[in-house]
Amino acid sequence: VYAKEFIRVMPFLKMYSLYCHQYTKGLEKLSELRSNSKEIDLFIQKREARKKNQQCGLQSLLIKPVQRICKYPLLFRELIKYMKKSELLQQGDEDFTKHVVELEEAAG
């Protein structure tokens, strides 16, 4: 059951990998846009100055997926270990383990 659900969401997790590989370029582009457009820079500054956004600027939000992709393989490794101990990892769930390895490679 768990493996089937994991395999179903795996393409979405792979998007994290793509995002992570493009993260630096994205920050460079954002910096360029802010430097070249006072309107964009002012817009972002105003949004970041709002009370509810003060602890969470745009760059803080942009790093979140990068931080998460590193945590997912650890979580899934622990899940596999628990499932093996409790015999929840069933025949045919080898794909689950294979996809966890793919996710680790994507994160690296």
Write up what this structure looks like:
It is a single chain. With 108 residues, the chain is mostly helical. Helices cover 82% and strands 0% of the residues. The longest helix is centred in the N-terminal third of the chain and has 35 residues.
Can you summarize the main beta sheet?
none
Please mark out the parts with pLDDT under 50 across 5 or more consecutive residues, or reply none. Answer: none
- CA-CA gap between termini: 27 Å
**Total count of strands:** 0
Summarize the SSE layout with pairings:
Blueprint: H1 2-36, H2 38-49, H3 58-85, H4 94-107
Give a concise summary:
With 108 residues, the chain is mostly helical. The chain has helices at residues 2-36, 38-49, 58-85, 94-107. α1 (2-36) crosses α2 (38-49) and α1 runs antiparallel to α3.
